Amino acid sequence: MGVKGAWFGGGNSKRSDKARSKMMKVWILRASTTILLWTCVVQLTAIGETWGPRVLKGWPSCFTPSIPPFPVNSHGDSTEVGSASVVAEKLVFPPKRIYKNNGYLMVSCNGGLNQMRGAICDMVAIARYLNVTLIVPELDKTSFWADPSEFQDIFDVDHFINSLRDEVRILKGLPPRLKRRVELGMYHSMPPVSWSDISYYHNQILPLFHKYKVVHLNRTDARLANNGLPVEIQKLRCRVNYAALRFTSQIEELGRRVIKILSANGPFLVLHLRYEMDMLAFSGCTQGCSTEEAQELTRMRYAYPWWKEKVIDSDAKRRDGLCPLTPEETALVLRALDIDQTMQIYIAAGEIYGGSRRMAALTAAYPNVVRKEVLLEADDLRYFQNHSSQMAALDYMVSLESDIFVPTYDGNMAKVVEGHRRYLGYRKTILLERKLIVDLVDQYTNGSLSWDEFSSSIKAAHASRMGSPSRRLVIPDRPKEEDYFYSNPYECLPQSIDQLTSI
């Protein structure tokens, strides 16, 4: 019995071991299955990002349909304030575009806000055309303004990435493996040739991606031609500029507050008065300046080696219309155009050189001259101080929404705002003919023209320079002298080319 009991006891033990072994195998099988399933899910997700949308035929693309206009309200007015829609929360981002990635494009922009803005639009179009991944552009921190702002300090970076994902893959940074390669210098860096058409990028730049995988383009302003590009490229440039480049919520909120304050007091005119110290030093324009001021501006020009033009004849340059209008000349022009003297004049510019002395004629003619620093509390602007591009973004928003926009010089902001106002419905933008104006001003001030003659001549000269539909000037052999694409992107505007007229 003892032996028998031991035998049966041993049998129970063996059966128990077999049961435990079987249970262990079941648990191992379940765990393995779970891991396998999760692995499949992860892989399918990754594959879905790469191949999935191919089953979704006809997704939105700038290379097929035209870009939609900004939403409008029941009165036909745009609901867009600045570059952001007030219905952004309803935005549904497009599906991702899938393509064979030819490499990674790093970009370093140069210049002020709007010079960089145009460059960003161009680089997106180039990345799309070359089928490369764009890394969020690096902004200029070494220019005269020394603004330390990053891309995400000015623009809504997530909106930028997501709103363009049907056109180009955009990343906030290089993948770790490629980042290490860049740190070791295993990439190619160069400035592309100015005003190049898209074939240059296909023939000269694309092979560099095949060779180096990562290409860094620096000095990216004006690197894509104004004209002679496929219409889908032009429309993509517009889509980036007018839809994807939305300012941060902080900038948008403060910009809307300024617009609300101005609008509550009636119509307002934005005067982009380019009469800051750096502008005068760079251009060499010293009309109305004292001898000491002219010398100070000259010293500043020589202090910046990348400002190549050093010896400048201010009078000759002014006669050729190459100088920004002075505040005194601007006051005469606004009066000659019968701008209501009670209208609010918002100054979209930095500190005016010469201060109140140079502004005296303008403020005497138009008592309601205001700036953002006057309309807002000091605390409101504290976050933006010493960040010139963020301050310029506020002025950009206000300029878009003004009843009239008047730039006194055709710099980058003047050009980009002009084009954006055309896009928003040909809002009134007075494009001053400076060469004619300074000649008429001189005749009026020396007594050879009466006020009525002066005013009539100014009105006649600008009757067709109010931002109405027109063709871009095309000069095939001199692209730098052509009209800038972003000042008149007629391929994106609700007007057929056959209906356009020349200025």
Please give a handful of descriptors for the protein shown.
alpha/beta, five-stranded parallel sheet, 19 helices, elongated, disordered N terminus
Q: What is the element layout, followed by pairings?
A:
Layout: H1 2-51, E1 80-81, E2 84-85, E3 104-108, H2 113-130, E4 133-135, H3 151-154, H4 157-163, E5 170-171, H5 176-183, E6 188-190, H6 198-212, E7 214-218, H7 231-244, H8 249-264, E8 268-272, H9 277-283, H10 291-303, H11 314-319, H12 327-336, E9 344-347, H13 355-365, E10 369-370, H14 372-375, H15 378-382, H16 388-401, E11 404-407, H17 412-423, H18 434-445, H19 451-462
Describe the structure.
Helix 2 crosses helix 7 (231-244), helix 8 (249-264) crosses helix 16 (388-401) and helix 16 packs parallel to helix 17. The protein starts with a helix and ends in a 41-residue tail after the last helix. The longest helix is centred in the first third of the chain and has 50 residues, at 2-51. It has 19 helices and eleven strands. It has helices at 2-51, 113-130, 151-154, 157-163, 176-183, 198-212, 231-244, 249-264, 277-283, 291-303, 314-319, 327-336, 355-365, 372-375, 378-382, 388-401, 412-423, 434-445, 451-462, and strands at residues 80-81, 84-85, 104-108, 133-135, 170-171, 188-190, 214-218, 268-272, 344-347, 369-370, 404-407. Helix content is 47%, strand content 7%. Strand 9, helix 13 (355-365) and strand 10 form a beta-alpha-beta unit. Mean pLDDT is 86; it is low at 1-11 and 41-88. The strands form three sheets. Strands 5-4-3-7-6 form a five-stranded parallel β-sheet. It has 503 residues and is of the alpha/beta class.
